[in-house]
Design goal:
The protein has 271 residues and is α/β, with parallel strands linked by helices. The strands form two sheets. Strands 6-7-8-3-9-10 form a six-stranded mixed sheet, sandwiched between helices. The chain has one domain: P-loop containing nucleotide triphosphate hydrolases (Rossmann fold, 3-Layer(aba) Sandwich). The two termini are 34 Å apart. The radius of gyration is 19 Å and the shape is globular. The longest helix is centred in the C-terminal third of the chain and has 18 residues. Keywords: ATP-binding, Ion transport, Nickel, Nickel transport, Nucleotide-binding, Transport. One of its GO terms (molecular function) is ABC-type nickel transporter activity. This is Nickel import ATP-binding protein NikE. Pfam families: ABC_tran.
Length: 271
Amino acid sequence: MHLLEVKAVSHAYTNRSFLMRKKGAAPVLKSVDLTIEEGTCLGLLGQSGAGKSTLGRIILGLEKPRAGQVLFEGQDVYRADQQTRKHFRRHVQAVFQDSYSAVNPRWTVEQILSEPLENYESMSRKERKNVLIHWLERVGLGEKDLCKYPHQFSGGQLQRINIARALLLQPKLIVLDESVSSLDMVTQAVILDLLVELKKELGVAYLFITHDITAAYHLCDQLAILDQGELAAQFQSKDDFFSSEEEAVRKMRDAMLADHPLSRTIGRPVR
C-alpha cells in the first residue's frame, strides 16, 4: 500500500466577470495521478501556474478537488471519519515558502512550537519544553531561542523553526511547498542538506514542490513534472529526467542554468 496516492484528481476555479457574474470553471488540474512511498521524496516540478501549489493544498486536505481521490494509508482524505481525519492531520505536515507568514508574529518560538503538542499530546510543561529543545537543537538552534519572536530571526533561521514545528508530531509525510525558494543560495544549500539528513534519520517522506531543478535533484528520489495542470511525466529515478524527450521536460531543461557560468550547459546540475 502506498503512503499517499493521488487518483485522477481534477480541479477548477470559477471565473468571475464584470458585476461578479460567474463565467465558468477554469481548469487547474486535469486527472492527475501520483504516488509517494514511505521514507521517499517525490519532487513535483513545474513552471509558475502549472498547478503545483493547488495540488499541494488538495493533498494537505485544505481544498477539496472537483473530482478524484487523495488516499493516505489507503483512506480517502475527503471521505474519512473524524478519527481518521485527526490521524491524517497529525501525520501530514507542511512547510511553506514564506517562513514569516507561517507563524504568529506576536508569539514566542515556545508558543509557536507548543501549539501542535497541545493539540495532540498530553504532557507536563517541563516535558513539552524538553521536546521543543530537542527539535530546535536538531535543526541547528537551541534553548535560548525559545523566548525570541519571529522578527528576531533571519529567513533561514525561521524556516528551521517551521521545519522543527512540522517534525514535532513525528509525521509520516511533509509537504514542502517552495520551502527554500525565498532563501539565498547558501542558506538554500544548508536547509536542503538538513532535510536530507532528517529524511535519512527519521524515515519521513517528502513531497517537494518546486520550480528549481537543482534543488529537486539534491533532495528527491523521484521526480514528477506538472505542465498546465497535467502530469507530463513521472520518473522513478531522478537521473531519467535528463534523458527524457517529453516536451515539457525539455522546456524545463532548456530553462535551467548551472551554478557556475562556465558550466551553463544542458544536463545534470553541477554538484
